[in-house]
User: Fold these one by one.
Assistant:
Number 1:
Amino acid sequence: MTDAAAPTTQERVIDQYFETTSSRTAFTEEMKANAVATLGRLLGDWGAQPGEVMVDLGSGMGEGCLFALSRGAASATGINLSGSENALARERVPGATFLDTDLVSGLKGLADNSVDRIMALNILEHIDKQTLATVLEEAARVLKPSGYLVAMTPNAGSPFGSMTRYWDITHEIAYTPSAFRQIGLLCGFKRFDFRECGPRPHGVVSTIRYLLWQMIRLSIKFRLMVEMASTKGGIYTADMLTRMAKQ
């Protein structure tokens, strides 16, 4: 009888993600408020809405579920393979449900047309293309006809995209708007919107950063127009937001 196959490096890091990667500092009320405010600025009207059923893929320490409930979501469920992260998330966000399972299995346990919004912030880059297709197919199945999947991923179309692509050793892929349309259409989605993950004005410093970024992105746009006669989608931040709909 042979021993079971040794886990891959990818599997080892994911299994110990809480110990090697996660932030395990105490989650004070001030930190909760800051997390909600930051996600609010980042997502805007793409975030959870009052009365919605929300599922958060790769829910980490529970910030996404906390944000959804603060917005008045009817329920928030996190799906995360890391039991250690989930244990902390349950302490931080007792009003949410956290499932100790992989994305595919977690989605397969949900009923057809039962979810208003699926969040996938900083998670889709961790899975291979075959698993991605299955995740998106299951997401399309469980979403209501009017529902959305909102993702944040490394942006391969950015001059700075390789930084986020290789920031985490478990990242498998980076994305472009074109790539999301390809895989999304294949898996049951029909409408796609994209936004940059750049500075959002909410004070003096952030406003200055926002204005400086607009200057930088114009130079990127100009360079692409000179080389390729195309803006290549116009999304140039190192990370990008994608919203996909079934209709």
Number 2:
Amino acid sequence: MNAAATYVIAGLSLLLAVVLPSVLRRVALSPPMILIAVGMLIGLLPLPEHLHISPIDDRAVIQHVTELTVLIALMGVGLALDRPLRPRDRDSLRQWNATWRMLLIAMPLCIGGVALLGWGLLGVAPAAALLLGAALAPTDPVLASDVQVEGPTVDDDATDLAIEEIDEDDEVRFTLTAEAGLNDGLAFPFVHAALLMAGAGAAGVAGGASDVASIPFSEWGGHWFLWELLGKVALGIIVGVAVGLVLGKIAFGAPRASLRLAEQGQPLLALAAMLLAYGVGEFVGGYGFLAVFICAMTIRSRERDHAYHRRMHEVMDGLEHLLTLTVLLFLGIALTQGLLANLDWRGVVLALALVLVIRPLAGMIALWVRRGGEISDLDQTERRITAFFGVRGVGSLYYLAYAGSHAVFPEERWLWSTVGFTILLSVLVHGVLVTPTMRHLDRHREQIRGASA
């Protein structure tokens, strides 16, 4: 792509990022829907050859752009969460109960549901089916902003956070936000399982064996469980906590005033923290996505009532909007330039099943409670909404690009078509329903307050 076209698309993305949120505030159309539609229209134009996007030929670019977009989103999500997480505090852990259930029950059920449907009923190769499940299972922190918390709550004088208001009446948004922040890192073990099954080897060497003759679990299962599932997750958490503690100490408690960035209001610490946490996490072999989110939450836990957190979140939120809208424009262009060329009935069935059946059912199973029990104060209506709104998006593109650069999947073009169609379906269904659903949720809460008054 030449420089002029890049500037035009970047400028259009920035303009739409500024205009769309206020224009569409009361309309049942989300900005992602509009951006993809605009991109699809651009893709129908007689564009020069160098402007055509191929998920195979441009895999490296797609991987790095989507990687950066997800990282920025994860940092912003971690800073946005007002509710503390204290591992040694049982009551604090209980307040995250719904999130733990969505991560430990709903997400594996989604991965297994997609993989089994693809392999067992639709004839997709085992490694490709598992990769599809891993790429599509996690909810997206990038496109799910309409159902997430908006950011650190600040009182009228814009200096301190209103601690007494932290997420008390927003269990749905909190659960979806925390889930989106954590499940990106937790999906990686299953992506690596698909690579190992495809014969890419423990180190994930590009050009691994075909997944037509998938390697049995007995040959890689032990390594995967101990290292990919447990070891790398633990390293990601440790790095995130360590980097967050060091940077939080510097920003809020450094002995020299010139180093206390919180007093200066310098918000670029958030960007530095994101890069450091991701770099160190990947360097030691852990999951960098998880390290970034944990780092953001650790920094957020320091001086929780300080308005500096809001300033850092605003910087990350602005960068996220710009990158997200740019990615969506290119996704729309790709959709009408051949990304869906390899879509068949199997891909359509998988996409519909995931969005309309597998994710909602997995969420309801995860949030099921016995009579008289509760899950972080989520009632039946709130559990249904939480189970349904599992938005798929930029993260799925990253996982697929990452896997394609580490192993050979004969069905890779079909995988891209299926993932592209699933994202399109998710953006359409969730984008149309999010505004009326959130209004219904607000009315539901008002009725509960009125009944209890």
Number 3:
Amino acid sequence: MIQIGKVNTLKVVKQLGSQVYLGDGRSARVLLADKKLPAACRPGDALEVFVYVDAEGHLAATTQMPKAQVGEIAWLKVISVNYYGAFLDWGLPKDLLVPFGEQPYEMKAGQSYLVRIFLDDKNRIAATAKLDNCVKEEADGFKAGQKVSLIIADKTDLGYKAVINHTHWGMLYHNELFRAVKKGQKMEGYIKQIRDDKKIDLTLHQPGYGKVESLTDRILAELKAHHGVLPLSDKSPPEAIHEAFGVSKKVYKQAIGALYKSKRILIDDNGIRLV
């Protein structure tokens, strides 16, 4: 079934001059709206295309890819504002509309906002900045230690809210962030825990001993690359440790502790060295 507002893999079913029609063998044909046709345009060729509804209400497709699809959340810039609403740059020639009714506050040209892309009641693609209406607070289908995709949202007194997998809210706490983040930034993270109130705490570091094992290999590699000596001990500043390895001081101490117990390194106040 052809999905509007998403990337579909469709086959060329017919070509009439410069007009190319695509299909999936089950649904209605879709006109390829690109002015410049791709090389693979013979009947039977498969194309990855983004499907939308054109101004006349017909299905159309393009090989150009938007910055986000229906059901996804993205950090997009307002190009213009008129009496219909705000128009966003989302990577396609026709800008994406955020109707005034989908704006919790007045959106301004030149500013960027987190929005979710959706289909309206006429299957037209639009966006909303009212994320609390479509992003869930309570955990559903997640488990501690799970790797997830994150989009950084608003800064709070506790830390940063983040959107998990385009569907749920989570929290990254200030005291566990060892690098700068900014609103709209995409990154990978992990579910730290599901709280009793069903809300989600996040971390940028892989939970459990697996991350320690991975870090020990990196530490050994760095030691070998620096003549068996590194000026980072268990007493070094957290900022220096994070700059070198991108982890917290706690994780670093666990890793060098494991290496010390296995008699692979020695630790002193000035750093560590290979045995």
